[in-house]
Amino acid sequence: MTNEVLLTIAGxxxxxxxxxxxIEIVTAGDYYHRNGKHYILxxxxxxxxxxxxxxxxxxxxxxxxxxxxxISNVHMVFEKNRKNLTCYATPFGNLTIGIMAxxxxxDESDKDIxxxxxxxxxxxxxxxxxxxIQLNVKSKDAGNFRLQQ
Length: 149
Description:
Blueprint: E1 4-15, E2 19-34, E3 37-45, E4 52-59, E5 63-70, E6 74-79, E7 83-90, E8 93-108, E9 112-123, E10 126-139
Antiparallel strand pairs: 1-2, 1-10, 2-3, 3-4, 4-5, 5-6, 7-8, 8-9, 9-10
């Protein structure tokens, strides 16, 4: 895998009575591998806010971590059959979120990494939604490396 990668993150929230809320981000990022874990770094701009969020995605053998620093701060840990609590600091206030991953699948090759996670999300000790997240990290030299406009 090269140091320059294309990261696609697709998420889906299934909220009772409200339907599905899909989210997708496609961005360029930096990649490195250290101590058996994959790291992807990228910056995120938030519409209507000045500043940005620096994101670190850490992919372990059976886990996923997402660390956000900037105008919002959080360290989310996804581990199968384990509930992880964290404080999500936003410009609008702090939330306590709970993440219970039910399924984590990680497939990797020399040129890309695919991660799929299904999880339940609690906010302030109240169930909010069943969610899924799919990450694809593609090496720059894998071909088809370009941001879609």
